[in-house]
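Our working data are protein records whose layout never changes between entries. The record below serves as our worked example for the rest of this section:
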Amino acid sequence: MKGFDWPALMEAGLKGLGLRPAEFWALSPAEFRLMLGETKHAAPMARDGLEALIRAYPDDRGDDDG
């Protein structure tokens, strides 16, 4: 997974879009991308992706509380 370029993102939001810091940090990634003009959307997760997440992060932790 590639890391975020926080300085570039903050510059785009604070300088480019003129957002206040609280406004910048309150945005969801989807809202921020939309404000930057990105129109391409990620494909929805397919069944195999969901199953991989379920295997990687099972709900059952093996304790008695369920």
